[in-house]
Amino acid sequence: xxARWKNDKPMSRLAFDARFSDEEACSHYLAxxxxxxxxxxxxxxxxxxxxxxxxxxxxxxxxCARQTSVTAGTVMHSSHLPLRIWFLAAHIITSHSNxxxxxxxxxxxxxGSYKTAWLLLQKLRRSxxxxxxxxxxxxxxxxxxEIPFRSRHDPxxxxxxxxxxxxxxxxxxxxxxxRDGHPRRIRMKHIPDGASKTLHGFxxxxxxxxxxxxxxxxxxxxxPPANTHEAKVVSxxxxxxxxxxxxxxxxxxxxWAKGVFHGLRKCHxxxxxxxxxxxxxxxxxxxxxxxxxxxxxxxxxxxxxxDFVEQRA
Length: 313
Prior knowledge:
Protein name: Putative IS1595 family protein
InterPro entries: Tnp_ISXO2-like (IPR024445), Transposase_Zn_ribbon (IPR024442)
Pfam family, one: Zn_ribbon_IS1595
Helix content: 25-40%
Number of helices: 11
């Protein structure tokens, strides 16, 4: 992953412990982010309420007396984990520039169950995608790559030479460039193929209409509906010489995946890509990554273990 800015370091563990010393501090933080203009009852719309004395994470409406948890309808919905565990997990994940596996997170949090750590990590990864994020603009490099994967049924002692059960996953990436040619933001998506319909669909989702798109000579990129397009033919030159930044990002992705997770599983590839994109786009804003992660989590709604497991099918 890209190096962090020295003047934008994340909170230290001491600072975290001081800021979120107990459940009440965490509840207060969530209430402020869920209702930045003040409490609003989700049932009747009354703008007056108060936290219960016996449980500061639950608010009671002054109008209809309905009680609402600060975690209801959020990524933390119906979780049996203390809020401080959620907050500590978010702090650990955003403080480590390279991230960590569920097994490492389990050890860091002292959780007895790997399943609990895995689900917690999946939910926080889901919170790394802001549904209202702005598309890439101005000048955008786009290319695709192949990443090897192993399924759950692949033998661990497969032969290294010759044919193997290792498959390939296709990933498309877009890199937004500044006017002086430096990278700003990125988007990534797991795609089934390099067909024109697939690539144009990605461009339509990730890139602002009117942006100037630069690709290699692959025909699948020709004539995107809402963008000007510049195809750079790479015959005689390697693609990474022509599309420098998008291939630098691919190189970082593969190094990151191998170093942290020892390879990627196909069933959850998009979640890994989402985490990588989150980290890259906040490489210069590490201090705010914690607030961003929990802020998105407050607004995206709940997900269950079954939701994540069914993605393996």
